[in-house]
Amino acid sequence: MTEEKKLVTIIVEGTPHEWPRDEKLCFDQVVIWVYPDYSPSDGRTYTVTFEKGHDDKHEGQLVKGGCVKVKNGMTFNVSRTGES
């Protein structure tokens, strides 16, 4: 018998997404939700910030290659910040 994963709702650029509560959310996934054409090698730079996180990391910036533990109601903002 498999245990069903509990999901939380996070908000990315105003759009709700469900994510497993016990899985960390990484930079690439957040960017892909906003920019489906994202490629790590496309020469563009992205900024990902979050708010309403866990008490030890209530707000901050998610850097390329980084991941963060999520909680219900957490919000993310993503912007394309440059091209090379």
The helix-and-strand class reads mainly beta
Q: What is the average of the pLDDT values?
A: 90
How many runs of DSSP E, i.e. beta strands? 7
Helix content bin: under 10%
Strand content: 35-45%
Q: How many helices in DSSP terms?
A: 1
Taking pLDDT < 50 over at least 5 consecutive residues as the criterion, the unreliable ranges are none
SSE order:
EEEHEEEE
Shape estimate = globular
Largest sheet: 5 strands, mixed
How large is the radius of gyration? 13 Å
**N→C terminal distance:** 50 Å
Strands of the largest sheet, in order across it?
2-1-7-4-5
Features:
84 residues; mainly beta; 5-stranded mixed beta sheet; two-stranded antiparallel sheet; 43% strand; globular
Task: Detail the topology: elements first, then pairings.
Blueprint: E1 7-12, E2 15-20, E3 25-26, H1 27-34, E4 44-51, E5 60-62, E6 67-68, E7 75-83
Parallel strand pairs: 1-7
Antiparallel strand pairs: 1-2, 3-6, 4-5, 4-7
